[in-house]
Amino acid sequence: MHPYHNGVLKRTVKTPKLYFYDTGFACYLTKWSSAETAMNGAMRGALLETYTVSKILKSYQNMGRKFFVLLSR
After folding, report:
1. What is the DSSP string of 8-59?
2. Dist CA 23 CA 50 (whole Å)
3. What pTM value is reported for the model?
């Protein structure tokens, strides 16, 4: 018998992740040349989330406030 849990999810959660602060640069690296490709692609949710978070962080920085994000434990 094989175990029900093989640890793949645990390894996925513990792997380091890379977040792009600039969504335009992320689209350039993935060779998405048009806005329609970005809006209809599989990563549209991640791009929107990154764009929203980057705008919030920029607004805090422009007001002179510090915004701390805990990226790892």
Report:
1. HHHHHHHS-----S-HHHHHHHTT--SHHHHHHSTTHHHHHHHHHHHHHHHH
2. 7
3. 0.57
